[in-house]
Amino acid sequence: MTDPLFALTVSDAVKRVKRYDRKTQVFINTRLDEALRDEKNLNKQAKASKLFNLPYSLKDEWETKILPTTAGSWRHRKRRGAVNCKAYELFKKAGAVLLGKSNLSDLGIPPEASSYVGGSTKNPFDSRRTAGGSSGGSAAAVAFGYSAFEWGADIGGSIRLPAAFCGILGMRLSSQTWPITDFFPKNPPSLEWMNGQGPFTHSTDQMRAVLDVAAPMRTGTERAFKLKGCVLYEPDHGQWTSFLRDVQPHAQFAVDGPVLKKSKKLLKMTRVHDHYAAIWGSNFEELLQSDKSIDFNTGLRAAVSGLLFKGRLGDKRIHPLTAELLLLMIVGRYTLFTNRKTAMRRADAIRDGFRDLWDQGYLVIAPVCCFPPPKIMQTNRNTDIISGTTPGNIADATALAVPFGQFHVKGKALPRSLQIMGPPGSERLVLDVADRLIQSRDKVEELRPLKTPAQRFLESKK
Questions:
Q1: Beta strand 126-130 with 27-30: parallel, antiparallel or unpaired?
Q2: For 29-45, how does the pLDDT look when each residue is reduced to its tens digit (9 = 90+)?
Q3: Which residues of 101-133 are buried (b: 16+ CB within 10 A; e: fewer)?
Q4: Domain-by-domain residue ranges, the chain?
Q5: Packed helices 32-42 and 10-24: angle between N→C axes, nearest 10 degrees
Q6: Yes or no: is domain 4-264+358-371+384-460 CATH 3.90.1300.10?
Q7: What's the pTM?
Q8: 3-class SS at 199?
Q9: Phi-psi map region of 414: left, alpha, beta (phi>0 left; psi -120 to 50 alpha)
């Protein structure tokens, strides 16, 4: 079946951005008039790929010379990179048209796309709620019908969480096989291994098309993987208490093999999240050094100012949500998370558990998030909001978020999503399993995904 998002034109997208983005706050910087000129010129050329003349956007951490790369930071609001990232060059060669750079959290740290340069990106299903983060603008751009696809990054769920909150697909690619370059700010090696890049789309067909174009960025080989079955990674927190019952029959159809409801190889999600926090806290000095524009003492004062005054006095150096997490990291670094070797030893044990399952032929299926999207500026209040995604970062998994049912909050339906996690280099297998899972899911009305504004718009044009 043809993906309707392949029918999204640059002209349509530009009109929607001009009409709605003042309220939705998806973009930090745009090139809308230039995009229309690109569309006109491309109409005279032969089709170069399946992405030809499609509008797309980039998370504002990917370097581009034609637009600023701010990383969502007010301090870097006018910063322009000296190079174009590989994703931009490949999508341009394929004939895709860049509309703009999408909003994210300040320096990509909090799991909510709220920043002083881009505002607070709205959830497509409830404008009072967040689109997630850090790549919230990325997911919202696709869900609102501004972009046919996006390219984001994920160091703690930053692709999968907003994909889940916005009701679309999002894939985190393994850093082992898809290493990140031309990224700002560059994460230190002690954290970079957890950061994966990848696409946002509405369908698996379109995701395959995006990955085909992006394939020259891939350095590792495809994982030889004989699928035997899957393990359902049951959450120990949150509001999806029926996860096993909801997912088991569809997972059975998707893998056509054994479905294990537990494994001793997998630690409880909240325990894994504690170890994830320890990795960040114990490497806090290296994290600070990745941004040369601010030293520790200045950064500490800016963080305290951001937390106490929230920009009201004109100090926008650090956004309040980022300030909250940075101050928690500082406290953790000098209290709970003092031993880096211990943190990495525990991370190795988590990775080994996933690898053992993958080596036996088992994929891991888990919730992306066991909570509905929080209200804007309240995301940090829930310390377990990324407990479902951080295991995939520590394991460096190929992880695909797939819409699966809804949360119901005061009579309003909000998207819910699960993730399929495979080893580095297994994106083709993960997508094939997702196809079968979606086929089975769509036979059950209450599990079908909510229609996004983009889907409703394109259906209205038929």
A1: unpaired
A2: 999 999 999 999 999 99
A3: bbbbbbbbbbbbbbbbbbbbbbbbbbeebbbbb
A4: 4-264+358-371+384-460
A5: 170
A6: yes
A7: 0.97
A8: strand
A9: beta
